[in-house]
Design goal:
hpI Integrase, Chain A, elongated, about 5% strand, mainly alpha, 2 strands
């Protein structure tokens, strides 16, 4: 039986299509959620010893979910990962029950407690050092210009790495703002400061593959779309050479953009729009970042701290 012909696995495929078409979730999220659905189906097949179909999925109870999470805990899942796994399971089961006309059990079960970590900002001097180090380590001048342009976009405009990778030649010629398509296909306008604009223009001038409208802006070494992992590896290598904290990642540059703006007086609502957050609660974490950063400065500098 083919994967999509299995009654329950076909539901997982249909759910992925729903997440993509109706919920506009990212491909990364869709892959992760669909993998969770497949794991649940595999567990239930062994746990109950029978074919898993929509009727069984609509009837699972708290004991089934506890058993599934216990098995996943045995695979080494921590609290954060277990909470995400449970969230994905709930979404999948709600989708199945809706297809059954709303029949079946709606299982109420609290997820594991997750301590919210505060993202740590990277100092501007360290960000500049990372960009320079990554450029110096590149194999060709145009790749050096590319890596520096991407990293400055993440910090100077607060882009997610996926948003930077999705930019096309349609953004050229550059102006003082940039239209960015973020999560769930939402578009926002972000300011494009002079150093970031200059870095992109340098890359555009050197790129051997062209930057025509409708075509991807940032290219890999062979001309295809640049993979986010290439930038992640460049930052990791620079971080090691510079002796920086392991939390110094491409996404930390976006955190730094938010934190440094907040420290200079930006209000939360404006910051929410610049970051493309769907809710203000996602942006409010940066009030904790700023406080944590000030506390670090106090502890390191105050003689009686």
């Amino acid at each position: 039986m083919a994967l999509d012909d299995h009654p329950a696995r076909a539901l997982a495929v249909a759910w992925a299509d729903h997440l993509r078409r109706d919920r506009r979730r990212s491909e990364h999220t869709i892959r992760a959620y669909q993998a969770t659905a497949h794991r649940l189906i595999g567990f239930l097949g062994q746990h109950r010893g029978q074919m898993v179909d929509a009727t069984m999925l609509a009837s699972i109870d708290r004991g089934d979910l506890r058993g599934f999470l216990s098995e996943r805990r045995g695979d080494g899942l921590g609290n954060s990962s277990a909470a995400r796994e449970l969230s994905a399971v709930r979404g999948f089961l709600d989708f199945v029950r809706a297809g059954q006309g709303g029949s079946g059990n709606s299982v109420k079960m609290k997820g594991p407690r997750v301590k919210k970590g505060v993202p740590r900002p990277v100092a501007p001097a360290d960000i500049a050092a990372i960009a320079e180090d990554a450029a110096e380590s590149a194999s060709e001048p145009w790749i050096a210009a590319r890596d520096e342009a991407v990293l400055l976009l993440l910090y100077g405009a607060g882009l997610r790495i996926g948003e930077a990778m999705a930019l096309t030649g349609d953004i050229l010629p550059l102006g003082e703002t940039l239209s960015v398509t973020g999560k769930r296909a939402k578009t926002r306008i972000v300011p494009l400061i002079a150093p970031v604009r200059a870095a992109i223009e340098l890359y555009v001038g050197l790129c051997p593959y062209g930057t025509a409208p409708g075509e991807i802006l940032f290219r890999g070494a062979r001309g295809g779309p640049l993979a986010p992992e290439i930038i992640r590896r460049a930052v990791q290598a620079a971080r090691v050479r510079l002796g920086l904290n392991e939390r110094t990642t491409p996404h930390a540059l976006r955190h730094s953009f938010a934190t440094h703006l907040l420290g200079r007086g930006a209000d939360l609502r404006s910051l929410q729009e610049l970051l493309g957050h769907a809710s203000l609660s996602s942006t409010q974490v940066y009030t904790g970042v700023d406080a944590a950063h000030l506390l670090d400065v106090y502890r390191n500098a105050h003689p009686r701290a």
